[in-house]
Specification:
The complex is a heterodimer of chains A (183) and B (79). With 183 residues, chain A is an all-alpha fold. Chain A is 68% helix and 0% strand. Classes of the chains: A mainly alpha (183), B mainly beta (79). The structure holds protoporphyrin IX containing FE (HEM). Protoporphyrin IX containing FE sits at the interface of chains B and A.
Chain lengths: 183, 79
Amino acid sequence: MARVTREMVENSGIDVDQLVELLVKNASAELTTFYYYTILRLNLIGLEGEGIKEIAETARIEDRNHFEALVPRIYELNGTLPGHMNDFHDISACPPAALPTDPTDINAMLTVLVEAERCAVRGYTYICNMTAGKDHRTYDLAQSILNEEIEHESWFSEFLGEGPSGHFMRRGQTSPFVSKFLK
Amino acid sequence: MRIINTLELSGNNGRDSPVYVAHNGTVYDVSRSSLWKGGRHQAVHEAGVDLSEHMSGAPHGIDMLKRFPVVGILSGDKE
Ligand code: HEM
């Protein structure tokens, strides 16, 4: 625990226990999404499925990176992760990105993917609003994650033909925004 | 439509009971949501109460609630 760090956040008026609980729930959402995306990616086969496999893989790896980046902040603020994986899964901030009944239905696959990203965009926007101008480190982290989640949403949304956003796939390394928290 | 008073609403707070939340006079049953487990939502809200005034602070709209069954209309009376 970083005592003065927590004290500073408390003094800013933030309910730190509530913030920590939100961070834990979002860390769970990231790790469980990493798990569910593994199953989705495996099932992205065939002419259409192979076309989005790479992008689903990038989102999967970046979600795992988000989990890794969130955990130290939770502990700095005197939080902990549940001792049991079952408990951790069940407190996720987002619904499970479960495999659709028909995995060959590419629209159903993309819908699961885009909805998972939208849930994340909502969650981190809320954390940014809560910490802006108060808890600078959590804000920086949540905003960095938000930047990546927004790009993920755009990728899947564009495959669904919802409209352009001008984003390209990653060229080179994953997590261009969050990597500074992973060093 | 069934009339649900605030006492019945508060009894359905998700602690060994169904999970009800009220919004603008309508009571929804969100028991099947994994995000309302145990009657708590996102570390911020508790079930069994009228959350009308809190929706504006949520990072989503009423559409999220409308996916769930309506169980009644909220009356202001306790009895
Ligand atoms: C102010 C704090 C709140 C936060 C941070 C929050 C956050 C969230 C998030 C991240 C989701 C998942 C969205 C998605 O899947 O894309 C969600 C879903 C939902 N929220 Fe909220 N919300 C808040 C307030 C409320 C309020 C006041 C209500 C009710 C009046 C509510 C009712 C719901 C419902 C019913 C769902 C859908 C759950 C499901 O699909 O299983 N939320 N919320």
